[in-house]
Amino acid sequence: MKKQLILVISILFSLGRITAQTFPIEVIKNSGDDDKRINIVVLSEGYQAGELDKFIADAKTFTNRIFNTSPFKEYSNYFNVYALKIPSNESGADHPGTATDISEPLHPVKYVDTYFNATFDSFGKHYLLYYEIDGASANDTETKIINVLADNFPNYDQGLILVNTPHYGGSGGDFPVSYSGYWGAAVSMHEMGHSLFKLFDEYYPGDDLAAEGINMTQETDPTKIRWKNWYNANQAGIHQHYYKGTPTDWYKPNSGTCIMESVDKPFCHVCKEGIVEKIHELTSPINAYTPNESTVEVENFPLEFSLDLTKPNPNTLQSTWTLNLNNIANNVDAISISEADLLKGINTLTTVITDDTSLLKVDNHETIHAYTVTWTINYETLGLTDIESDTQKFSLSFYPNPVSDYLNITFENSNQQPLKLDLVSLDGKRIKSIYLSDLTDQKIDLSFLNAGFYLARFYSGTVLISSKRLIKQ
User: Fold this and answer.
1) Across residues 288-305, what is the average pLDDT?
2) Predicted local distance difference test score (pLDDT) of residue 407
3) Number of neighbours of residue 277 by Cβ within 10 angstroms
4) Which are the contacts of 221, defined by CB distance < 8 A and separation ≥ 6?
5) At what angle are helices 141-152 and 4-14 packed, to 10 degrees?
6) Any alpha helices (H) in 85-229, and if so which ranges?
7) In 4-109, which ranges are continuous DSSP H helix?
8) What are phi and psi of 437, to 5 degrees?
9) Left (φ > 0), alpha (ψ -120 to 50) or beta: where does 427 sit?
10) How far apart are CA 11 and CA 281, in angstroms?
């Protein structure tokens, strides 16, 4: 899922431009096809033409640090990183010395001519290194950033502005900004935590920025908070936010142990889970598969089927292979089908890939991500076999779990096909079947069930996508 809306906006702005602004781009990290990876583009700011080698070195240092930090370390293969070499007329960033949150000047006051107008003291806060001093967009810098990305790397997922200054600073927003010094990589991860992964600050960000999210809530019931599966595990709890010593009505999972509060800390388990969930949303582990033509004709057996998967490190992907609803293999990347394995007529071979990473609390986890490849094998009497293939991507959420009366379900399917939910008792008896529509929230009345444990089995056609335990209170 790329920045399609921003790209459309940039095209509209570009109508008034005569020529595109193109700059040299260098590969910092390549893990595969851009269309199948999360693409981070680092833009130089405050680097003069003679300092662009330093920019590349800084971008490489940032990349190495980021992808040696969990969970980016485990999912490094899902990312590409590029550096866009944009020269500035002068080095550094503006520092007007107008911040009101410290005693200025913290470092020398100066104004420099840079491409994106980076400045300290934005919004009156010294460490807020941003591309406008007050958000008024007097220089229309955000449009400039959008146009540069559209002209040079429109297939980006995240633009990151790296500022050539040793003085600590950074900011979030659609395009995170970071200084180039020692803690810069951590600042980048913190700010991308906001922009790409929708994490909140775990220091109190202010009333105007407080909201319900992955790691922020006003809920105090441990069974209802977003991170309920982590409650009382790995130091996660319900910790109150404070503002200048005054308690607020907002809560976070940790206290002083997460990079979203302090950049000298790692990501907490709740934020790691949020990042991994977003990686699953933006990408698919299926890099390629064979046979992959819409229709192929074969005459010789055995028939060979294989997957090329983008694997985490360590590999936590699991695959289940079924032929005509019968399980034939697990956790392999290739199988062979003999003539004796097939029925005369239509046969269906499906593999379902899921991620069993411990970075997600799988038991009672609200969102299921599953990816499938289905081959339809037409085995005719004369031995001529036609094979058709198709892929699907599923993202399915159901909550609350445990449930008292109503279960809420919503899902997205790349092919917009319906799902079927079978509610099954632990002794294998099917209690209820429900058909679910793509992108439609459904509320299912389960008040008639006795308290206990059940299985929620989700099917796409006849293919089992996922089986999850459901607790009825």
Assistant:
1) 86
2) 87
3) 20
4) none
5) 100
6) 141-152, 184-195
7) 4-14, 52-66
8) -100, 145
9) alpha
10) 26
pLDDT recorded at residue 10: 47
Structural domains in the chain, sorted by start: 4-195 (3.40.390.10), 284-472 (2.60.40.3080)
Which residues are paired to 389 by β-bridges?
375
Report the pLDDT value the prediction gives residue 139, as an integer from 0 to 100: 66
Which pTM does this prediction carry? 0.86
Nearest to 163 by CA among 26, 21, 59, 38: 59
| Range with the poorest average pLDDT among 23-27, 79-83, 136-140, 306-310 | 136-140
Tokens of 239: 């910790």
Given this model, what pLDDT does residue 382 score?
A: 64
Q: How many CB atoms lie within 10 A of CB 434?
A: 14
Q: Is 113 exposed, middle or buried (0-12, 13-18, 19+ CB in 10 A)?
A: exposed
Beta carbons within 8 Å of 387's beta carbon, 6+ residues apart: 291, 295, 296, 297, 298, 303, 375, 376, 377, 378
Q: Strand 38-45 to strand 158-163: parallel, antiparallel, or no bridges (unpaired)?
A: parallel
Q: Which residues, including other chains, have CB under 8 Å from residue 85's CB and lie 6 or more apart?
A: 23, 24, 25, 26, 44, 47, 52, 55, 56
CB within 8 Å of 273: residues ≥ 6 apart: 214, 227, 230, 359, 360, 361
